[in-house]
């Protein structure tokens, strides 16, 4: 039993080395989710932890991220080996954008219209990336809000239909209303990891799972 | 998409579209048909919903058509896919993944006040035009 297990491990290790040359390119991991789930905060946390740089500005205003932003060659070290990924921070996906919502955030109409136009282009771009250009998905949800939304259901369905590996992250556990179990109940077919990207809580487990899932 | 337009323009038109009407259409034809109706302020109810790929394209095309002068996007709700059907890679290889979502309701975001769903009921509250 032990001998066979050792032999199997050795073969796996040799096979991994043999094919390592073919999988040198870092996998592109898209960070997806609805607006204001904390995607950019997470992307910045990952990028700062492993490269020292940020990916983009964070804001409580919806659609702060209006272009997909890629941070290349983020090398995450786990258990003595290194997993190299490109992280792609994407605009929050929605089916509607109304410029008048931005007026509530002390914006002039021209600025609100421009921002909404950029937001719609960003969402379209994010959907295109999902169909064409990502190898795996980190799906970020705000654990203080109801995960049973049509956008979440559709996006998880799209991800599953493309056989993309996915990790669901229940973010904002530092907030009082956080309810991680509600997210686990919504998507029981996927692993859900809780975290606070803002406070850096539970990031070790997040990196372990990223390395396992996308390494 | 309907042959006969209603005479009054202060009502809300509801288009109940059979699976049969959709079955020979391409993805873009389906999306065009849905969005044309929604642009007119109509509510579209699909007997058989869209595939995940079509849903993805519907979001993408919807985003390209949003403009500040009127169209703010769509509201959409559908019943979940049946858990009992085969899924995953094997299911797709065997051609059994063509089981799109069940009944789907789509309407203009600026005209649907709320769209709620539980496991067996989708409830739409519409604003009067």
TrEMBL record, chain A:
- Which Gene3D superfamilies did the record assign? P-loop containing nucleotide triphosphate hydrolases
| InterPro entries in the record | GTP-bd, P-loop_NTPase, Small_GTP-bd
Q: What does the record give under GO molecular function?
A: GTP binding
Q: What's the superkingdom here? A: Archaea
Q: Which residues form the G domain?
A: 28-172
Output the SUPFAM superfamilies linked to this UniProt entry: P-loop containing nucleoside triphosphate hydrolases
Residue span of the signal peptide, if any? Answer: none
- What's this protein's name? GTP-binding protein
Q: What is the lineage of its organism?
A: Archaea, Methanobacteriati, Methanobacteriota, Stenosarchaea group, Halobacteria
UniProtKB/TrEMBL annotation, chain B:
Question: What InterPro entries does its record include?
Answer: OapB-like (IPR012017)
Q: Which domain of life is it from?
A: Archaea
Q: What is this protein called?
A: DUF2073 domain-containing protein
Give the source lineage, highest ranks first.
Answer: Archaea, Methanobacteriati, Methanobacteriota, Stenosarchaea group, Halobacteria
